[in-house]
Design brief:
The protein is an alpha+beta fold. The chain is about 70% helix and about 15% strand. The chain folds into 3 domains: about 100 residues; about 35 residues; about 90 residues, TonB (TolA/TonB C-terminal domain), CATH 3.30.2420.
Length: about 280
Amino acid sequence: MPRPKSTISAVTPKIILVLAFLCLMIPAIFGLFGSYRADALRADVANANAARDAAEHRRMTQEAELKTRETAVAGEEAKIAEAQNKATKAGAELAQSQKEKTELQTKLEAKQNEIASLQKRIQEAGAAKPSENPTVASTPEKQSISPPPPEIKAEPVEERAPPPQQPKRRKTSPAEAPEVGASAATISFSSAKALATFAPLPKYPLKVRSDGVTGSGVCVVSVDQASGRVTGASMEQSTGDSTLDKSAVRAFRKWRFKPGTVSKVRIPIEFTMTGASH
């Protein structure tokens, strides 16, 4: 009987030691596994934090870029709006200037028409006065020319030598004829330039000048020898534009010459972009 008790007592401590060892090893194993698990969790948490920080950084960068782009777009829109305002203002100023130009041209044309009508009246009045003078002036010429023939005829009667007197009559008659013909002949402007006392240049009409119309021609004027006034003017050679022709005729009708010098004058006229010249 005592032997079984000793075996049980001997086995029991070993079992207790084994159980104690197992009890110690199991927590150690679980602790080791838990430490590995904790390290993995820490690594996951660190990775998650890094990813979160990177995402936050990207978000902040994108927001900054978006704000920069919005600022640039706002600046461009402001520039576009300013340019549009300037264009609108310039268009309004241009329209106003064109309106003022049109009004000035209208007023200028009205003034030119008034001046033309006044000039026409003055020319008509001036033409009416010279028309009376030629009749008065022609009578003394005829009277001065008529006395010499009786004297010439009286001389041959007294001498009774008709043959030599006939050539004298022929000499006197042609001598008088060229004087009348010379007074009625048309002379050039270069010859009559020194005889002109008043010679205004034709005006270059604004509308024709703005259109770039140019031309040259020749105008012939008739002059009353008694007064030196121009009684008529016409274009012998047109400038190619009726407005330029009218302007030249209006100006040449105002010309004045020394009395008893010319009867008809041929005046060249040229209209260029720099103005009128003859």
